[in-house]
Amino acid sequence: MAKDGLSIGDLAARTGLAVSAIRYYEAQGLIDPWRNAGGQRRFSRADIRRLSFVMIAQQFGFTLPQIRAELDRLPKGRVPTKADWARISTGFRAALDARIDTLTRMRDTLDSCIGCGCLSLESCALYNPGDRAGLKGVGPRYLMGDRPGA
Amino acid sequence: MAKDGLSIGDLAARTGLAVSAIRYYEAQGLIDPWRNAGGQRRFSRADIRRLSFVMIAQQFGFTLPQIRAELDRLPKGRVPTKADWARISTGFRAALDARIDTLTRMRDTLDSCIGCGCLSLESCALYNPGDRAGLKGVGPRYLMGDRPGA
DNA sequence: GTAATTGCTAAACCTAACTTTAGGTCAAGG
DNA sequence: CCTTGACCTAAAGTTAGGTTTAGCAATTAC
Fold first, then answer.
1. CA-to-CA distance for A22 and A7, rounded, in angstroms?
2. Which of A10, B54, B97, B129 fits a disulfide with A1 by CB distance 3.0 to 4.6 angstroms?
């Protein structure tokens, strides 16, 4: 783990990710390591932060393609500065706000529905919250759902 | 679609669900139709509301096993009343509150992080929000340190 | 009475985000 | 030098929540 880059194992230890996950992220274009003479992956220290970003973005509900799109907005050719990361992070803010908004509206609707106990397709407001689509940002299937395997 | 129950196609039309989804829900124990002489499924009108509940609960991020657990709390042997449904719906309220809470805390943390642009594993507060567990349901993926195999 | 729907089951397929496995290669310590 | 552990690739497996397909039976429409 000298000056010529970190091995995949080093990076896994630094980030807490599984080695297999890191390889998968490479396949998805989230990181782009070089290879040493023997064909093994070598990562720069900046990749630690890059993977940190990936993990945080995932917590916020972004998909890997979406995260990749964000990462692609980082300057190519030089190591991203704190300011670069901060700029990208503001994008999270809007997504979070939207998500909180939708959930809050849902809760309010639910409040007005608990009294009636209708849950009826024709009349219940829960079927017409207006912007259920706002929740789609989280994913098509596991829409806000618990993780698979729970 | 006479007095002897609705066919699966009728139920699909009433709920907007796909026929295949209804059969899947039966396999998951969410509904329990009887069969007619020819072996075809027959559903009661109460199943329309039952499936409505399933759909709403899914929007709220519950998994099918969780929804099944809620449904199992309905009185067995009689058609559930509005009061029964209302009682169950209050359970949603707590779950939604928790989810909104967690997201709000995340947003606040993010706000304090945007300025520093750190995203550093050792120091960034985003890695220590305190109750990431409450977020189960926000992301499509396993949470950090919560992988099935690890 | 027969043709067109609709329904039946079992099994395979789908996506996202990974993990596991199989079979081999590279690198570091003694 | 040799062994052990880390690494490599490709492919298959996993989970949730379904959909699709194949081949056949029941119902409904005319």
1. 11
2. A10
Looking at residue A43, the DSSP 8-state letter turns out to be B
Q: What is the CA radius of gyration of chain B?
A: 21
Interface of A with B in 9-68 (CB under 8 A): 14-16, 18, 48-49, 52-53, 55-56, 58-61, 63
The residue written with tokens 């305190």 in the block is B130
> What does the pLDDT look like over B29-74, one tens digit per residue?
999 999 999 999 999 999 999 999 898 888 878 899 999 999 999 9
Nearest to A119 among B53, B124, B140 (CB): B53
Tokens of B44: 């009661």
Show the tokens assigned to B135: 């977020």
The pLDDT tens digits for A71-91 are 999 998 899 988 888 888 887
